[in-house]
Specification:
By secondary structure, the protein is α/β, with parallel strands linked by helices. 39% of the residues lie in helices and 21% in strands. The chain is globular. InterPro entries: 2-isopropylmalate_synth_dimer, AIPM/Hcit_synth_CS, Aldolase_TIM, Citramal_synthase, LeuA/HCS_post-cat, LeuA_allosteric_dom_sf, PYR_CT.
Length: 536
Amino acid sequence: MFRERLYLFDTTLRDGAQTAGIEFSLEDKIAIARMLEEIGVDYIEGGYPGANPVDTEFFETERTKRATFTAFGMTKRAGRSAANDPGVQALVNSAAPATCFVAKAWDYQVDLALGSSTEEHLEGLADTVGVAAAAGKEVLVDLEHFFDGFKANPDYALSCVRTALDAGARWVVLCDTNGGTMPSEVRQIVGAVLEIAPGDHLGIHSHDDTGQAVANALAAVEAGVRQVQGTLNGLGERCGNANLITLIPTLALKPFYAERFETGVTPSHLQRLTSISRAFDDRLNRAPARQAPYVGASAFATKAGIHASALLKDFSTYEHVAPEGVGNERAIMVSQQAGKSNLLTALARHGITLEKDDPRLEKLLKTVKEREARGYSYDGADASFAVLARRSLGTLPKFFEVENYRASVERRHNAMGEEVTVTEAVVKVRVDGELLMSVAEGNGPVNALDQALRKDLGKYSSQIEDLRLSDFKVRILDGGTSAVTRVLVESRDASGERWVTIGVSPNIIDASFEALYESITYKLLKAEAAQTSTTA
């Protein structure tokens, strides 16, 4: 059966950055782009080159391997040509092979926000698209306020669609910018647009202000658009955007869509959804939504009673899809049915193969659950999982042992009479029976411990020379004076690989040191695997 191609476009790094309290660092953007590639999206929009130093640096090189790396920005300013507009040229000259320009499809907004005429705005849209297309870019146009604009002045809204396509745009995206459009209206208006434009050149960009962003996206697909835009976990300004973590499995697993449409999402991509969703929340230092569709901890949970007893006889009775298909697991409160298949998949990512009836698997599963109950979360700390798995299976080499460590912070006056804060750390490790002690100063206790721990590891020192700490996040799990602290450390090396390790403790320094220790251990595991591969 022929299936039409449906394209998935992620705007997390642009729309997500509009969320109150969210600021993406360069390291965040790189890591999130990597996450998005793991769930099979077709386009990753990275932000606005030239708008700020982070975005400008992010677009100095292409950041994706499979997905189309996309830059976002405005059409040209009034009174100058696109060829001489710095904003347009920043997009054209960026490393992104695709550019998405925003234009206003509501005549009221053209007058209110731009102080311009609709004729001038259409001329600027055509000029901008033409210049970018001539430069070899794949051009997309987001038509802001399209649905409100159509209801107010359909002729002008449709003129925006025609102008963009005639100038060379590959995609024209219809935006429900204030999130107030109903699904029935989306179907009706998209139908009108299809009379002048082909569906395989149209996209939908919906906001969630009425809680219907996903429904509106699906309504647009049913009506005929062939590109869907959204964000990880529905992040976005105000109430958020269409949630790709909900849309992707719906499109891939529900027969109505799966039988009609083909996406770039494979079964292995789907199995990463839960892990990526939770890892994204960990990076944002927020708790994952337990009742999130498909990926929430409660998405496949059933309490004791008639539902649970029926579920034990037929899992499909109360589950609309198989939880393992989206990387989640079934939870029955009276008898936890625990994710051995998920565990086997996670082990396979690290080259560890076990049979499902191997008793060591049950032991590892129990260990993981016990540690998660104490505050650990391995969805966002895969390197720590690799270390834990090898330790539990008895295959973790004893590279070095930490005898003890301490960190001190001193506030004092320097020789100039200025108040300064000095942080010092001392770490004692034992390598092959030899005791090594290192002392280092740093920018805070964690940095000082990191410097001291890596300063002298004897025969292993050369193997960690390129190891760098690239990010550090702290989250308080329980309030009060006995709060439990979770620390996530992201590391990288010269190969370009990045990995995340976790530490949990009531003491933030202990939690940090645990994450640092496991980061170095994982790096040494990598070095050992590379050496073994070379020898073989």
